[in-house]
Structure prediction request, 215 residues.
Amino acid sequence: MLHYQIVPVTHYQQNCTLLWCDQTREAAVVDPGGDIERILAAVAAQEVKLTQILLTHGHLDHVGATAVLVKRLGLPVIGPHADDLFWINLLPQQAQMMGFVPVEGFVPTRLLNHGDKVKVGNAELNVLHCPGHTPGHVIFFDPESRLAQVGDVLFKGSIGRTDFPRGNHQDLLNSIRERVFPLGDDVRFIPGHGPMSTLGHERATNPFVADKNFG
Prediction:
């Protein structure tokens, strides 16, 4: 079974997540945006072995500590989709724009496509390409635990911004309605910022994507 711990990082309070398999104790860190010592403290506290980095998209508050983790632990970087490589290549400009100290660049080990699988120990995550917030945004879904890591696609009561370069509001709505919501109302999701929710709650109440708005 997949377990998780949310580790808020950076002044954006981005939800970095530690995922691990309870059988193998192998773990992945999802969206390590910064505050690397806080992330590694969570790894030590859970007594798990960190084996990979998973990225939902290329924004700095989600990837800022990636290069340091790669250099320190030699971890592979899995994701995002190739359409977000331009964001990773723009890390210096992102740092200036978002008020972060400059960070080192990195090259993903494996880029992801819709329908791919990623294993964390014995747990197998489904990859869904969900463009809109960024063109190469992906989410990770564990069917067994009914848990999704959705990055900045969907939030409790809101959705991701689409006013960044190559963002697209209609693409984001389509991603949520056609790819995320069909996972099931019972699915709990960890957003990139803020509290967790369920897909059923958002379908019923989210003012941007609720069913009542798409009769």
